[in-house]
Amino acid sequence: MTITTSYNSKALQQPCEDKIIEYHKEFQMSPESIKNDIQALRDWLIQNPHLPNIDDDGRLERILFYCKNSLEKSKRFIEKHYTLRSQYPEFFAHRDPTLSKLVDVEKIATYVPLPKLTKTGQRVVLFKLYTPENIGNFDPEAFCTRTFMTYDFRVSHDTARTDILVYDLSNVSMAVMGVMPLQMIKKLMSIGSNAFPFRISSFVVYNSNKVLENIINIAKTFIPKKLTNRVQAIHGLDKLHELVPKEILPRDYEGDEAMTLEEMRDQWDEELIRNRGWFIREQDLKTDEHKRSGKPFEQKETFEGSFRKITLD
């Protein structure tokens, strides 16, 4: 048995208890070791008063799991995650899922975890721009806040061996790319590299055009080679089905699921609203820099310059 109570819902279905035990054994995790390591993390948190009190055993257990049962990696993740919450409040505060700006932005673009895991325990997360004609109303800060809410909720409630990230760029153009300020992109790359512990097995770039593929190739030079080797640009549903099992894909991707992606998005929206109290409590958890002894972790600048300086063939 695992230490914590298992979470499950139609919107974020979890592996059975036997599968969770199997996944834990891959990292030599046992009920006794989990209990001891959670206590070790609690003791460490007390010794570092600038960090918040994390009273959610499920969150600590999953942090250990995503950090491959390494106490040191788990500590580094906790330090970085809650420091970034303090440094970038524009993305980590005001997380009430009923706020109109968070509701409205999902009608333009969505980033949603698919309800079912693959048979091998992978969580597929799918991005899609629905209405490029409304891009003038797109609020990138609200979209990122919403996305990080999803990731944060998963840290506490989801047990997935790895993530497959699918970016459907069918409706994305350079005009769409232009709504994301460069300074925000730099912040997002820092957050993406440090704030969440999920292990990514594949980045699938689906139906992009030549210009976007050139930008993606440039962006790959700024991320670790280990991750760039997992980026795959593909076109067509046949290729997508080779990488993502049809049985978990939505109906509008010729998957076997009865729901469309839009219906899955609506189901996920309902899940976030159902957990509104959790988000409101969690948004206050961050580092108190006045109590910190020493410097916060150092962030490396991801890139400099502007897309205006990039010449594309």
Automatic annotation (TrEMBL):
Molecular functions per Gene Ontology? phosphatidylinositol bisphosphate binding
Name a Pfam family for this protein: CRAL_TRIO
GO cellular component, alphabetical, reads: membrane
What is the official name of this protein in its record? Answer: Uncharacterized protein LOC103512982
Please give the CDD domains that the UniProt record associates with this protein.
SEC14 (cd00170)
Top-level taxon:
Eukaryota
Regions crossing the membrane: none
- Which residue ranges does the record assign to the CRAL-TRIO domain? 99-261
Upper classification of the source organism reads:
Eukaryota, Metazoa, Ecdysozoa, Arthropoda, Hexapoda
